[in-house]
Amino acid sequence: MTDRTDRGALALAGLLAFAGVTHLTRPRFYDPIVPRSLPGPARFWTYVSGVAELAVAAAVTHPATRRAGGSAAAALFVGVFPANVRMAMDWRHQGTARRAVAFGRLPLQVPLVWWAVRVARAAPAGRRR
Fold this sequence. Notes:
Layout: H1 3-25, H2 27-30, H3 42-61, H4 66-79, H5 81-90, H6 96-122
Helix pairs in contact: 1-3, 1-6, 3-4, 4-6, 5-6
């Protein structure tokens, strides 16, 4: 694996770790964007997503689990898209800056998924028995 590939994987892991930590330390920001269709309290889903982001970050960090971690990151980015849609809908009548953040997150998911898929594909295949 090249240094550039490693840097890309570690940067993705850093982004995921940052997101995971903020979900756990600043849950009030995330709670309102949890889709109402999910059962139970929003805080539960905020914490679950934070833990998932940290677990995926750890998987992406280690070369032995990087392929699975990259695939999980791609799935995670797709899975949180409904929360981004909810944020955009809830913030559509907010000020210009908040609307820009909320609507800017929607197309941002595409390069994030692409990045995660590239990390997964560049990782060495796991050992087979």
